[in-house]
Protein backbone atom coordinates (compact mmCIF):
# COMPACT_ATOMS: atom_id res chain seq x y z
CA UNK A 1 0.00 0.00 0.00
CA UNK A 2 1.27 3.47 -0.87
CA UNK A 3 1.72 6.26 1.64
CA UNK A 4 -0.55 9.28 1.67
CA UNK A 5 2.49 11.47 1.06
CA UNK A 6 3.21 9.60 -2.19
CA UNK A 7 -0.41 9.98 -3.32
CA UNK A 8 -0.39 13.74 -2.78
CA UNK A 9 -1.65 15.58 -5.85
CA UNK A 10 -3.84 12.67 -6.98
CA UNK A 11 -7.50 13.51 -7.44
CA UNK A 12 -9.79 11.70 -4.97
CA UNK A 13 -11.85 10.18 -7.80
CA UNK A 14 -8.71 8.84 -9.48
CA UNK A 15 -7.41 7.43 -6.19
CA UNK A 16 -10.71 5.64 -5.61
CA UNK A 17 -10.70 4.15 -9.12
CA UNK A 18 -7.06 3.16 -8.78
CA UNK A 19 -7.76 1.35 -5.50
CA UNK A 20 -10.68 -0.48 -7.14
CA UNK A 21 -8.60 -1.57 -10.16
CA UNK A 22 -5.49 -2.54 -8.12
CA UNK A 23 -6.94 -5.91 -7.12
CA UNK A 24 -3.72 -7.33 -5.63
CA UNK A 25 -3.11 -4.13 -3.62
CA UNK A 26 0.44 -3.87 -4.95
CA UNK A 27 0.23 -0.14 -5.56
CA UNK A 28 0.66 -0.85 -9.27
CA UNK A 29 -1.84 -1.75 -11.99
CA UNK A 30 -0.84 -4.54 -14.32
CA UNK A 31 -2.05 -5.08 -17.88
CA UNK A 32 -4.44 -7.79 -16.63
CA UNK A 33 -5.88 -5.55 -13.91
CA UNK A 34 -6.37 -2.73 -16.40
CA UNK A 35 -7.97 -5.06 -18.92
CA UNK A 36 -10.41 -6.40 -16.31
CA UNK A 37 -11.44 -2.83 -15.47
CA UNK A 38 -11.90 -1.44 -18.98
CA UNK A 39 -15.05 -2.41 -20.83
CA UNK A 40 -15.90 -1.26 -24.35
CA UNK A 41 -19.25 0.21 -25.34
CA UNK A 42 -20.13 -3.23 -26.70
CA UNK A 43 -19.56 -4.79 -23.28
CA UNK A 44 -16.32 -6.60 -24.04
CA UNK A 45 -12.87 -6.11 -22.55
CA UNK A 46 -10.18 -4.16 -24.34
CA UNK A 47 -7.61 -6.31 -26.14
CA UNK A 48 -4.27 -7.32 -24.65
CA UNK A 49 -2.60 -5.10 -27.25
CA UNK A 50 -4.69 -2.03 -26.37
CA UNK A 51 -4.05 -2.44 -22.63
CA UNK A 52 -0.32 -3.01 -23.13
CA UNK A 53 -0.19 0.10 -25.32
CA UNK A 54 -2.00 2.21 -22.72
CA UNK A 55 0.35 1.04 -19.98
CA UNK A 56 3.45 1.61 -22.11
CA UNK A 57 2.32 5.16 -22.95
CA UNK A 58 2.19 6.16 -19.27
CA UNK A 59 4.66 3.77 -17.62
CA UNK A 60 7.33 6.43 -17.05
CA UNK A 61 9.50 4.22 -14.84
CA UNK A 62 9.32 1.31 -17.34
CA UNK A 63 8.15 -1.15 -14.67
CA UNK A 64 5.55 -2.76 -16.95
CA UNK A 65 2.83 -1.46 -14.62
CA UNK A 66 1.39 1.95 -13.77
CA UNK A 67 1.34 3.57 -10.36
CA UNK A 68 -1.33 5.98 -9.14
CA UNK A 69 0.34 9.03 -10.71
CA UNK A 70 0.76 7.29 -14.05
CA UNK A 71 -2.84 6.06 -13.78
CA UNK A 72 -4.02 9.65 -13.27
CA UNK A 73 -2.34 10.59 -16.56
CA UNK A 74 -3.97 7.62 -18.31
CA UNK A 75 -7.36 8.50 -16.80
CA UNK A 76 -7.06 12.08 -18.08
CA UNK A 77 -5.97 10.88 -21.54
CA UNK A 78 -8.91 8.46 -21.84
CA UNK A 79 -11.36 11.15 -20.74
CA UNK A 80 -9.96 13.63 -23.25
CA UNK A 81 -10.46 11.12 -26.08
CA UNK A 82 -13.92 10.26 -24.77
CA UNK A 83 -14.86 13.95 -24.89
CA UNK A 84 -13.65 14.19 -28.51
CA UNK A 85 -15.61 11.05 -29.39
CA UNK A 86 -18.78 12.34 -27.77
CA UNK A 87 -18.46 15.70 -29.51
CA UNK A 88 -18.22 13.92 -32.87
CA UNK A 89 -20.98 11.36 -32.15
CA UNK A 90 -23.81 13.80 -32.88
CA UNK A 91 -26.61 11.22 -32.79
CA UNK A 92 -25.21 9.56 -29.63
CA UNK A 93 -25.28 6.06 -31.12
CA UNK A 94 -21.84 5.12 -29.85
CA UNK A 95 -20.58 5.13 -33.45
CA UNK A 96 -19.19 7.95 -35.53
CA UNK A 97 -20.35 8.02 -39.12
CA UNK A 98 -18.52 10.00 -41.78
CA UNK A 99 -21.25 12.66 -41.94
CA UNK A 100 -20.86 13.43 -38.23
CA UNK A 101 -17.26 14.46 -38.74
CA UNK A 102 -18.08 17.62 -40.67
CA UNK A 103 -20.52 19.30 -38.25
CA UNK A 104 -19.65 22.59 -36.58
CA UNK A 105 -18.30 23.71 -34.15
CA UNK A 106 -16.07 20.65 -33.72
CA UNK A 107 -15.49 20.14 -37.46
CA UNK A 108 -11.76 20.83 -37.20
CA UNK A 109 -11.23 18.39 -34.32
CA UNK A 110 -13.54 15.71 -35.71
CA UNK A 111 -12.15 16.12 -39.22
CA UNK A 112 -8.61 15.82 -37.91
CA UNK A 113 -9.51 12.66 -36.00
CA UNK A 114 -11.20 11.25 -39.10
CA UNK A 115 -8.18 11.99 -41.33
CA UNK A 116 -5.80 10.51 -38.75
CA UNK A 117 -7.80 7.33 -38.27
CA UNK A 118 -8.45 6.83 -41.97
CA UNK A 119 -5.01 7.83 -43.26
CA UNK A 120 -4.01 4.31 -44.24
CA UNK A 121 -7.42 2.77 -44.76
CA UNK A 122 -9.93 2.83 -47.54
CA UNK A 123 -13.18 4.42 -46.38
CA UNK A 124 -16.47 3.14 -47.79
From TrEMBL:
Pfam families associated with the record: EF-hand_7
Residues annotated as domain EF-hand: 9-44, 46-81
Localization per Swiss-Prot or TrEMBL: Cytoplasm
InterPro entries on file: EF-hand-dom_pair (IPR011992), EF_Hand_1_Ca_BS (IPR018247), EF_hand_dom (IPR002048), Peflin/Sorcin_CaBP (IPR051426)
UniProt entry tagged with the keyword Repeat: yes
Main location: cytoplasm
Keyword annotations from UniProtKB, A to Z: Calcium, Cytoplasm, Metal-binding, Repeat
PANTHER family, alphabetized: GH27120P, PEFLIN
Protein name, UniProt field: Peflin-like isoform X2
Species name: Nicrophorus vespilloides (Boreal carrion beetle)
Higher taxonomy: Eukaryota, Metazoa, Ecdysozoa, Arthropoda, Hexapoda
Gene (UniProt): LOC108558934
